[in-house]
Structures are given as C-alpha cells and as structure tokens.
Amino acid sequence: MTDSNLPERPLYEAACHCGTVRFSLRLRDGLKTARRCNCSYCRMRGAVAVSANLDDIQVTHGSEELTLYTFNTGEAKHYFCSKCGIYTFHQRRSAPDQYGVNVACIEGMSPFDFAEVPVNEGKTHPKDRIGGGSAIAGWLRYEANPESRERASG
User: Fold this and answer.
1) Is 130 within a domain?
2) What dihedral do alpha carbons 103, 104, 107, 112 form, nearest 10°?
3) Based on the structure, what is the number of domains in the chain?
4) 73: buried, middle or exposed (CB in 10 Å: 19+, 13-18, 0-12)?
5) Paired strand residues for 78
6) Among 75, 56, 54, 76, which residue's Cα sits nearest to residue 12?
7) What family name appears in the similarity comment (predicted)?
8) Strands, DSSP E only, in the chain?
9) pLDDT-based confidence at 40, cuts 50/70/90?
10) Total Cβ atoms within 10 A of residue 39
11) pLDDT, the chain, mean
12) Does the N terminus or the C terminus of the chain have fewer Cβ atoms within 10 A?
C-alpha cells in the first residue's frame, strides 16, 4: 500500500481519446514504474504503463462506457473505452492491488516523454515462472529527431 511518509502524490487527470471516459489518479511511485510488456496482449496493445493503487483511481465520467477484456487466466482486467477503443487501465495479474495505467491517457504525458522504458518479460508471466519474480526482456528507446524539432519551432 501507499507509504504515509511519502510526500503528497500529485493528482492527475486522464481520459480516453474521445473524452468519453475520464478519470483521476495518483501514481503509486510517480513515473518510476513506467514499463512495457512483451506478452501477447501488451505486445499488440503497445502502451507504456505506470502503476496506481486500486483505490487511487476514480472514474469521474463515462464508467458505463468502459468495456472489460480478459483472457487466459481471466485474472487481469483490461478496461478500454467502448467508443474510441483506447486502453485506459488494467488491474494487474502480477500485482492485483494495482492498476497499470496507460501513460498516453494522462493529461500532458506521452509515451515519448521517456527516453528509455524497460520491457518486462511477459511471454512467461511472473506468476507462472519458476521462482516467480519479474525479468526484463529488453528496453524500448526513443530519441527525438532533431530535424523535426527544428521544423516545429521554425
């Protein structure tokens, strides 16, 4: 759970692409939890996720438009907007007391804000791995093209 000795965690506003689903959240450990995963679902979804405790997300608008997707064990609960199809957050199988939140839904954030994001080994889920625990499959790196920055400012 959240350590009460930590400084106040900021409240973020978030929404799907069309704005039908809106939610507010506090991150568990700021942006330090940013990650991707290479399991079959995350590989296709392609989102960078950060962690929030279950009680730190409040859907403020459009909860009736959230659609649930589960697969395999059915433990992870993936929510997305039924109107625009954007993945908003999911209850994690590896940490059921947490949500993984799509960084791109958080106001003012983008997956391209991260120079490097670890990619968790999800082909064999940590709960299914002998000895458990997470492993890093690799890193996703982003470097802005300086030419496109020059064009945007000029």
Assistant:
1) no
2) 90
3) 1
4) exposed
5) 69, 90
6) 56
7) Belongs to the Gfa family.
8) 12-15, 22-25, 36-37, 49-53, 57-61, 66-69, 77-81, 87-91, 98-102, 116-120, 136-141
9) confident
10) 19
11) 89
12) C
Q: What is the per-residue pLDDT across 82-122, written as a single tens digit (0 to 9) for each?
A: 999 999 999 998 899 999 999 999 999 999 999 999 998 87
Q: Does any domain span residue 136?
A: no
Q: What angle do CA 85, 91, 94 make, to 5 degrees?
A: 130
Mean pLDDT of 34-59: 94
pLDDT of residue 152: 64
Q: Is the residue at 4 inside a domain?
A: no
Residue 75 sits in a domain whose CATH number is 2.170.150.70
CB 93 within 8 Å of CB 74: no
Residue 44's φ and ψ, nearest 5 degrees, are -80, -30
| Rounded CA separation 125/122 (Å) | 5
Burial class (CB in 10 A: 0-12, 13-18, 19+), 145: exposed
CB atoms within 10 A of CB 60: 13
pTM: 0.84
Q: Which two tokens stand for residue 97?
A: 């007391």
Q: In this structure, what token pair is assigned to residue 46?
A: 């392609």
Side chain identity at residue 137, one-letter code: A
In a domain, 103, yes or no: yes
